[in-house]
Amino acid sequence: MPSTLQIKDLQLFRQNERLLSMDEHIAGGDILTVMGPSGSGKSSLLNWLTGSLSKDFTATGTVWLNDQDVTHLPAHMRGIGVLYQDALLFSHLSVAGNIAFAMPKDNKNGGKKQRLEKIAHALAQVGLAGMGDRHPDNLSGGQQARVALLRTLLGAPKAILLDEPFSKLDTQLRKDTRQLVFEQIQTYKLPAIMVTHDESDAEAAGGKIIHLDR
Amino acid sequence: MSQGFDKIAKTQARAHLIVLEQTDWFTRIVTLSPKLLVLILILPVLGGLIGVVLPAFGWVPALDKTTLNLQGFIELWQTPGLTRMAALSVATGLISTLLAFVLALMILAAFFNSVWLQRIEHLLSPILVIPHAAAAIAVGFLIAPSGMFARLISPWLSGWALAPNGILPHDPYGISIILGLTLKELPFLLLMALGALAQPELGKKLRQQYKVALNLGYHPITAFFKAVLPLLYPFLRLPILAVLAYASASVEMPLILGPNTPPTLAVSIMNWFNDVDLTLRIKASAGALLQLALTAGLVAFWLGGEKAIKACGSASLINGKRRYADAAWQKITGVLTVFVIGFMLLSLVGLALWSIAGYWRFPAMLPEQFVWLHFDSAFAQMGTPLFNTLTIGLVSTAFAIVLALLCLEAEQLRARYLSNLTSLIIYLPLLVPSIAFLFGLVWIQQWLNYQSAFFNVAFAHVLFVLPYVFLSLASSYRRLDPRFAHVAASLGAAPIKVFFQIKLPQLFAPILIAIALGLAISFGQYLPTLLAGGGRIATITTEAVTLANGASRRTSAVYAIIQMALPLIGFILAWILPKYFFRSGAR
Question: For testing the chain A interface, which of B112, B115, B215 should be mutated: the one with the most A CBs within 10 Å?
């Protein structure tokens, strides 16, 4: 059964000013796009969803993941993956190491050998075959973005958030990476929320679009 | 002259040419200062080592011994209890460093995400400037049989109506030394780590990677150890090695808290050097070389341990395990932090109480009488030591600050950082055991016939003040926006004008902090003052150490408090003055 993500009656405040309110249900495989100028609270929305809302903000409302209330769970127990603008790959691990870091350690995954095979397979699927042993800093921006995507997906999240993930890529790379990300979201049937200020991203996502205008 | 000159900026040749073109004496001085820094740090240390190597092999012209032989080493080897001394030094050094390191990591891991980290930082920062001698005195009061700790639990818990026969302090296993050293080094390591985290790019990167790990489901403490520590550790390596080197070779802590038969190796060496029988100096020099070997061995051991842990741990970094009983460790760390802070506070309270205590019978929690007598009598005799402490501190710190500022300015002039080698050299006086090279340094100073004990002591202090002052100023200096200088230069200002009228005012607060730090370091020096001054210069610290091992507990408490108060005043000034002078807009 695919996951579902539900935001119930969210009201987000900075100091005493109400930034946004939202009430949405996102099914697995769908992408909700949130657009708005800077300062409109887009990143704070994602922070609230992952449980890392900063002290300057307050929020009321609840988050339901697969019909479970996760609003008060700490960040590491929610199971919501995030893809950021920067790839943020760990520089003390290799490419394969980064992905292995994300994979859960259940014994069904088999021993080390199976994990490595799974990683190699995943890398090949996104056109990075044989790059497992490379150091992340030696990869190009597009390659890093793809590794970051694999890392997030192989962490087996139940939902995925995208924080302007393509804005640092040039136009052609942007299209290709975007297509890859959206395809994977469809394949894994994850509910997704994407924050962006680019119209073409919103169009390509093909889901509901919300504008935060202030 | 610059007609056919290539316009590629920042080439070495161009910078060189600019320096030659400008007959600006300021720029010349600035360019020379890194070399001066290196000389000032290397020559005394290396010279001091040579000044110990030669006597170790029997070459002491003052005693008419000019043939090289191994007599010194033979005598050293035959010293009763030598293995015990060496083992004590090694064990106390290693265990205290390990404990301080592990505790610092646990505190960082447990509180990485929370406000408590900053609060703990503020709580522990003042401990940094407490001289080792004062800290030793305070800890000694805490764990003594009739000390604060025993009074707290007597008689309701322990059943003691009279002070028990305790083994702490001065226990033969060095537990008291380990306690004192750990409590003193833990804040230092923690604050070094926080300092690294405060660097803009590194801090941001580490916090982001921590966040990514959390999002991937890693529990907080595991996330710290697997995602943050591997990148943070290289910045901690030199401070840790400095701590290890100091702990294995220090003199103040074992003198005040350690056993006497046998003491640690460093204390024994000091006793031999100070012995009336001058021929013991040969044995002492041999001992100093042994100490050097022990410390070097410990450093090598630690570095080897790093590699071993890296090799063993790399598999578990990526095994995907997201928790290792994090919740339990969080609680344990919380309890331990409370204990550590409680320990420190209690020992300070005990110190304060002893300094104003009249009649204070065991097991009362508070003295029955409060008197100012001890402070009065101490002040009456404190004139000369206080004067010496202040003047030596000011002279050595002033010199260190000027040199550090000039070197940092040189760094900016050449538009590249000081090399790694220079950074290592800056740490040199902190890594080489002072007992090993100070005696040699004194020998050289006498050979050069500097009669001024004051100057000798001040110079010895500079060696220890300079590293801290430089490190403290470096981060602030490097964060200056270079564009201010460029704008000023384009308006026609010479480098010296830029330096004095633009850079220094911007750095007012950091300079004050560096001054306060330098003063604190100088105030707390024991061995350099004792040796370079030939015992003729008394400072608050030398008096405190002498009193701690002899006279009344109350008087040494007073001196310990003065030892702590002096640096504190410096830091309070460093905090207040920027509010009134050179106020920047960001207040």
Answer: B215
